[in-house]
Structure formats: C-alpha cells, structure tokens
Model the fold of this input.
Amino acid sequence: MTKRLPLHPRAEKRPKTRTVHGVALSDAYGWLRAENWKDVLRDPGKLPADIRAYLEAENTYCAALMAPTRALQRDLVKEMRGRIKEDDAAVPQPDGAFLYYSRYRRGGEHPLICRKPRIRPEKGEAREQLLLDADALAKGKDFFELGDAAHSPDHSLLAWSADEAGSELHDIKVRDLATGADLDDRITDTTGDIVWAPDSRSFAYVRLDADHRPSQVFRHRLGTGMDEDELLHDEQDAGMFVDIDETQSGRFLLISISDHETSETRFVDLAAPQAEPVLIAPRETGRQYSVEHHGDDFLILTNADAEDFKIVSAPLASPSPENWQDLIPHRSGRLILSHLCLKDRLIRLEREDGLPRIVIRDLASGAESSISFDEEAYGLGLDAGYEFETDTLRFLYASMARPAETYDYNMATGERTLLKRQEVPSGHDPAAYRVRRVFATAKDGARVPVSLLHRADLALDGSAPCLLYGYGSYGAAMSASFRTNPLSLVDRGFVYAIAHIRGGTDKGWRWYLDGKREKKANTFTDFIAAAEMLADTGFTARGRIVAQGGSAGGMLMGAIANMAPELFAGIIAEVPFVDVLNTILDDTLPLTPPEWPEWGNPIRDVEAFHMIKSYSPYDNVQAQAYPPLLAMGGLTDPRVTYWEPAKWVAQLRATMTGGGPVLLHTNMEAGHGGSAGRFDSLKEVALAYAFAIHTIREGWPEQAAAKS
Done:
C-alpha cells in the first residue's frame, strides 16, 4: 500500500478581478498580501492573524513532510559548520597608523570589528582593540545584521549601522573609540551606508522614504539631531534608487542615482564642509557610468557608445560628456566590470570569454600588466582597502574546487604575496574534485557556458544526480568561485552545476541584453538547454536534476517548472519572484518602478503587459503534473515580498493534476537573505539540500490531495 502524505493546508480562495489593457485578471489569493505590509516590515508582530495562521500552517506542513530528513539536516549542518573556521579573521587592511579587520569568536554568529597598531611594539604582539561586538549587539534579538562599520578619518570614532528586522531598514549610531560608548547621535530608516568627511565631524548617509525606497542623501553633523541634517539630494523619480560611495582618493563623495539601465552621478568635495553636489552627466536613458578620481581628472567607466564599456577621462573642472576622452577604448567581447584608482595607476577588472582578469595600467606611461589564472573556471575580485598612496593591490582568487586565496600584489615589482588561504577545518583536498567548463547549445544556437564541480572519481555514465543552479537577471554574472556548502552534495555523488544563462553578463553585455524584456524567454530556455545537455552528455539524466535559484532566479524556477516539469526531479525556489505581473503592475511596492527597465512597464505598455503575462510563473501554472517543489520566503523581505511564494504555492496546489509535493517554508523572523547569523543560516541551506537529497534518494509518496 502506497504511503500517503498528510493533507496540505488549503488557502481560502477570495477572488478579486480587475481589468488591465482589456484583459480580466483574477487573483484568488491576493488576500495573502497584508494591507499593512509596510508596518509588518518594521514589526512582524503586526501581521494579520489569518495570514499568520496560514503561513504557520504551511511551516508545520513543511516540517511534517521533511521530518524523515531531520537527521540528514542535522548531519548537513554539522558538515557545513565543520568547513567554517569558527575563529576566522579577515586579512587586516592598513589605514594610517592602524590595521583594521573583522573576525569571529569561536561559536560566534556575528562579526567583531577590530583594529591594532600598524607598527608592532618592540616586544610582544600588537594589542588588539575590539571596536564593535556584533554578537553582543544581537543578543536577545530575533534578527540582527550588521551593516556598515566605518571608522572616522582621524580614527577616533566608528559609525555603524544595523538592521534588526530583516527589512533592510538600518539605524546608524556613532561610537567613541576611546570610551567604547555610543554617542547620542542616532539616525533611523537608512540603507546603512556611511561616508565620512575628512574632518571626522560629519558623514553622509541615504534615507529610505515612506515607500521603502532609498531616495534622499543627508549630511549629518555630530552632536545635532536627525531633523537638523542637511539634505544633499532628494530624488523625485520613484524609478531611480540612490546610493553613496567615495572615490578611493577620499576626496569626493559620490551620489549615484540609477535604475537597471540608466545612471547619473553627482560629486561633493568632502574637504569643503558647505559643498553642494555637482552633476557630472545628466541621466540619459540607457547610458550608465561610474566614477573614480585621480589628480586633476575623473576616470569614468561608461557604456556611452560602448556596449561592453570603456574608460574615459574628464577634467574635474568640467567633467560633462563633451569633455570625455577615451583612455581605455571599447573592445567588443571584453566587458569591463569595474575600475579603481590608486596613486599613479588605474586598475580594472574585466571579463572575456567568460573568464575574469585584473589589468593594471601605469597612468604616466600607459604600460599595462595583468593578473589571471590558468583554470577552466574561477572567480577573481578586487579588495580596494582604505589607502590611495600605495604600490600594493589586494585581490582574491578561488575556483570551484580551490579555497579562496587573498594576495597582495606589488604593482612596482609584479610580486604576488599569498596572505591567506581559506581554511577548511574538516579537511579539503582540491585534487579530489574536478572543475569543468562545458557548453550547452540554446534553441537559437547560442553557446551557454556551464561550470561543473564533481568528485574526480565520479562515474559520468548518467547515473549521478545533479543540482543545477541558475539566476539570469539584472546583468549579474555567476562566479565560479569556491563554495563550501555544495561540497555536502558533491561528496554524496552529486554533480554541482552553474548555468551561466542569458540575462547575466557572463559573456558580455550583449549576453545580458539578450535575456531581458522581450528576450526574457532566452533565460528560461537557456537553463532548460543546460539541463538537457548535462543529461545527454552523461553528467546526469533527465529526472535526476534538482534545479535551484533564488530571487529573480526563483522566477526562473517558476518558469521552468511550468515549461519543462518532466525534466526535473525537484525544484528549490528561494525567495522566488514568481508573482511577476501583479508586482510589476503595482507601483506602490518598493522595487517596482526601478524594475521597469528590466522587465518593461506593463502599466503603460500593452506589449510589455502581454509579454510579462506570458511567462509570469503565478499566472502560468497549468493543469499538469509538477515535480516536488520547495519554496522558501522571508516575512520581512522588502525585495520579494512573502506573499509571492505563498500565493504561488496555493495556485500550484489548486491547479496541478499530480506530482509534488509542494512545500512552503517562510522564515517568520527574517527577510530576503534569510537568517543573518553565519551558523543559523546553515539551517535553511540544510533544509534545501535535504530536500534535494531526499528527492533523489527516496522520492516522495503521492500527493494526498492535488486540489485545494
């Protein structure tokens, strides 16, 4: 007799219908969106009782079905925790007389912010000063995540920010480093980012508006109230988000205003206490640029007449576009990702043929040298640090099998110094694994890169299960760097694969453009092509692939579940953006107006409306069998609101004709990133991995009820 599953929760249907562009849209589960959702972001206790009851019932059901995996989940957490160095410390970054770094205490969930003198005393070790103890700050709180921790230029103060709900609303406080006490200054509802003025008496920050959008930049002077802060920028376009940074030289505050395809930057001379922002180039649809400073010039990374970006110089006195001069000309296929100025040098991080490299240019002579590695797939990144007048460049390297390495590179001599290799306390032998880069052929003939990690002794005869990860939106590239958590799958015989699908910039800016708006379907069909290729070439087999993606990658999971359910053994959708049409039609949600350049504006554009409607996972659930599916959300998530996965799960259960089960787990005390603690977060990873392993090894009994 086949064992049956317990009955799943039944979401009540409360249909509401509206007409958009002549099309009737009915939503039976829209009631799961709390009318007071903005209040819930600040205080989860304000969630209406009927919605809370439903979400908690779903959590209970998920726990019941996952009960056979409890021991496995415990084993997974133990394994993954065993790969984390409990008393790990970052490599110290020099700044003036001090070395600044973060570290963890053994068993600690949150970082400790520390410093010690740069010059050791004649006898003994330099004495450490603990500046901020995030473990202590988090004690007794359901959620705590440290944001920024920025020391003042005179090294006497530390401005720090924290989110205590998971809703990405950060409070900023200022600590006197001599006494260890916080000053009376307290600023609320910020992004958490902080840029100090050189006099250490004021700093800039970004405030979120009533719609949870970062829209205003203020200058706060120590000892004054928040209501006295000076407004530097007030963004009126709800479709543009505001961010702040500073040039590596420390001279200028940069106020960046952008959406997903257009940007503009204003600069403020930080040495002038009363300075007003100055515009570099006005926003022009489709034009993006970012700014660095060296001497009498701004060095600007831009896509103006350069699809894969170029770097131009512009004089400080008149930096408008008519004065831009090419410094690093555009070259098709070489995507310049970012740039950094250190004294006398320009450093850029670029990607070509899917692989990254660092290029250092001597600004006086124009001579260039590069840093790259000879592996099929790897990740490379810059760590800018605090100093400008230095010959030392710090970078990080890792591959899927090789733990992360931190290097200092002497730009004068070309010497590399290994400072730290990521330690895996439970042991790790890179030679026991194989990293590969293979290609799938998309429907239109495009070659889709896929990075693979598997045991070196794995038989590639089609018998191995596979976890295939994908994202494919916003131009985000998926780095083939070292991740310890997937080793728990790989060591159990899985092939771990990352599909570098269109919608990301893995193969250049065109790769991104070919996976957005009217070409969004390429993202989904590329992922399906990657899965089919892995099966056809013996890495795995159809029906032995578990797909995984989060956020916009969760939308991908919803789309491929509708399009090719028979291909996958299971699907894991984390904080999934699946209610795409309703969300992008709602301009009151925090992220909707800035999202229109990515997806199209279905409010004004009837073609965009029909296009989004054609793939929105919630709107395209079909009367068919679906594979086992785990959806995971966060109650205080301002990016992908909790009701998206909740509505989707309800719609799946009401429509599917078989298969499943469909599970929903909502973290009732966290937002988009899940639990903030470095060990607490492993429980959610273990839940997802246990679902994948159980799906492959044991399978699931038949669904007790396919209809709600």
Q: What stands out?
A: Residues 704-708 have pLDDT under 50 and may be disordered. The first strand starts at residue 16 and ends at 20.
